[in-house]
Amino acid sequence: MNSGIRTIGVLTSGGDCAGLNAVIRAVTYSAIQTYGWKVYGIMDGSMGLIQRPLQFRELTMGTFGGNYLREGGTFLGTTNKGDPFNFPMPDGTTKDRSEEFAEGCRMLGLDALVVIGGDGSMRILSRLCERAGIGMVGVPKTIDNDVHGTDYAVGFATSINVVTEALDRLQPTAASHHRVMILEVMGRDAGHIAINSGIAGGADVILVPEVPYSLEGVARKIRTVLAQGRSHALVVVAEGVKTESGEPFLISYSGGQQRYGGIGNYLTEKIAQMTGAETRVTILGHVQRGGIPSTRDRLLASAFGVKAVDLVAQKQFGTMVGWQGRSVVAVPLEKVCIGPRSLDPCGTMVGTARGLGIYVGEEICPVEDPAATI
Ligand code: F6P
Asked: Which of 149, 154, 179, 368 is the most exposed place for a label (fewest CB within 10 A)?
């Protein structure tokens, strides 16, 4: 097929996760071997095309040397700050740097760009590509798994393995000391990491931002577990969960960025007070983003990378590859860039947790009348 495409760029944008290098590899392998294109890897997200000299490297079959498939992070670098349309300058002002980006695309002779990012990155990069007059195809990645249009984003599977392993390590020490262990996990405003790893890791309580909870509900569950003869309990809390009265826990970093963090400390104090149990907290943090990509993430990354290149060849721009059911599909960006995809509070995962007797917060879903379905 002669698509007129000769040169494409690929970049990673937003927070890193495991499996990004596997996507870059799949994009490069497919673009070169299937279509005979030239591939440039853009460094540090959009910044590589904004800075002068341009920050990029040509990606060839030799670039990968057998390693990158197995490595976490992104060898192209990434950034999760600085929208080029409102770029923060050192003097405190903001500047529109979109024309520098467009010029960078022209200097490299890019016909299209594959953007590996979350929904926020894809929204910004699609506007930038429009400005540059080139096509864009997105590949979803984030440990939070909160991108619309795909069942799974690259990085999620590895992160929930990390969290499950953390619970496997916390359980024996909790049992040995007869303690309640609280594990605070990432996920921003979504509870996908907490619910999936909490179920897999045998938690007694899982708190997610999408389901309201009461401290009395948490304490009651822990008292019940202890009364049933178990000496310890495990609690997983998503970082985006608020206090019982609705206050978020935020950490302010220099440069003005705010991130969630600290709800685990609050719960530790409250649970200790209310149950009398010795309680400890672990805040897992960026450990959840690192590590060797799991088999599932490598497979997803490979399928996504190949499909993204096919979409470029077919000029199906303004789309993102997504995993739906059993296959990879093209999803229009308008259906993706509509904010984060929350955990369904009445969906299968929350229902499964409740069925296991896990306290997931208060019941807010209509209870089905079994007689009504006959
Ligand atoms: O979106 C991914 C994520 O890891 C969130 O789960 C977390 O809240 C945030 O990024 C942390 O961002 P940073 O790396 O800027 O601290």
From this structure: 368
